Q: What sequence folds into this?
């Protein structure tokens, strides 16, 4: 449970950074940002693995770059579920996926070993 909360906080920070850096990504309130982080965590846990398997041949052909499109689709799916979160098109979704991925990568590099100590 603690891992999900930490991941939701990191995702919320990534989505907040996406809204600040990527044109076309917007939130109406802090509550919608938190809700988007939680919903994106659930979408990534249940829908994304299926999408990764279904798009594996295309991912292999593009040397993994198609995973950006899959991640953008997961962010777009989250925006469809949530009225207070807007992603305006594929390029905004790809930009949000890149920013959110970089924030998660940095957080993992900084705090990734904390769970191993328990």
A:
């Amino acid at each position: 449970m603690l891992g999900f909360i930490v991941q939701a906080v990191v995702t919320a920070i990534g989505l907040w950074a996406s809204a600040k850096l990527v044109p076309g990504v917007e939130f109406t309130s802090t509550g919608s940002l938190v809700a988007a982080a939680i919903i994106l965590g659930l979408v990534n846990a249940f829908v994304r693995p299926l999408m990764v398997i279904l798009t594996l041949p295309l991912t292999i052909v593009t040397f993994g770059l198609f995973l950006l499109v899959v991640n953008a689709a997961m962010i777009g799916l989250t925006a469809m579920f949530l009225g207070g979160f807007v992603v305006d098109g594929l390029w905004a979704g790809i930009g949000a996926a890149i920013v959110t991925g970089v924030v998660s990568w940095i957080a993992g590099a900084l705090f990734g070993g904390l769970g191993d100590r328990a």
Observations:
- The longest helix spans residues 90-111.
- The beta strands are 25-27, 85-87.
